Each structure stands twice: as structure tokens, then as C-alpha cells.
Amino acid sequence: MEISGIISAIVIGIVIGVLGRLVVPGRQHIGILWTIVVGIVAAFIGAFIAHAVGVDDTKGVDWIEWLIQIGLAAVGIAALDRSSSRR
């Protein structure tokens, strides 16, 4: 992965984090920085899963990869919110 790929993954991760936060119902008690971190991690893991399944390179927009990444971000945000609210 080149530097341009890493930078684009970070930018996409920010968008994924925000979309994942919108998917989780209710108010989340985590900061925007954690949302961005979760989104970036979800983007990398989602891209790996999409590649492993074989849906990472389609004609047009990779909707399945995006859905995997957003789903992972939503799960990560919900888990982080639950762990931070118990403290």
C-alpha cells in the first residue's frame, strides 16, 4: 500500500466513522476523535474482509465494501460507547 492509499484510507475512515455513528441509535458518549479512530480501523478491516470475500473490486462504487465498513464502524462505536459508559 502506497502513501496515497493510506491517506485515502484515512479520509474514507473519517467518513466511515461518521456514518457508523449515524447508524447507531441514541446518543453516543464518545468523542469525535474516537469516532474517527474507529472509522479508520473499520475501513482497514472492512477492506481486508471485502478483499478476502472477493467484493473489493467491482465496476463502479463498491457498495458491499462500504456496507461492511459502515457495519464494522457501527459495531465498534457501540462497543466503545458501552465500555465508556460503564466507567
Explain how this protein is built.
With 87 residues, the protein is an all-alpha fold. It has one domain. It is 76% helix and 0% strand. It is built from 3 helices and no strands. It has helices at 3-23, 32-53, 63-85.
Considering DSSP H and I runs of 4 or more, what fraction of the residues is helical? over 70%
Please state the overall shape, judged from the principal axes of the Cα atoms.
globular
Q: What structural class is derived from the secondary structure elements?
A: mainly alpha
- Taken as a percent bin, the fraction of beta residues is under 5%
Number of helices: 3
Straight-line distance between termini: 38 Å
Show unreliable segments: none
> What letter string, H or E per element, gives the SSE order?
HHH
| Tally of strands | 0
- What about the largest sheet? none
Summed up, the domain count is 1
Rg measurement, Å? 13 Å
Overall mean confidence score, pLDDT = 83
What keywords describe this structure?
single chain, 87 residues, mainly alpha, 3 helices
Report a brief summary of the structure.
The protein has helices at 3-23, 32-53, 63-85. The chain has 87 residues and is mainly alpha-helical.
Write the layout of secondary structure elements.
Elements: H1 3-23, H2 32-53, H3 63-85
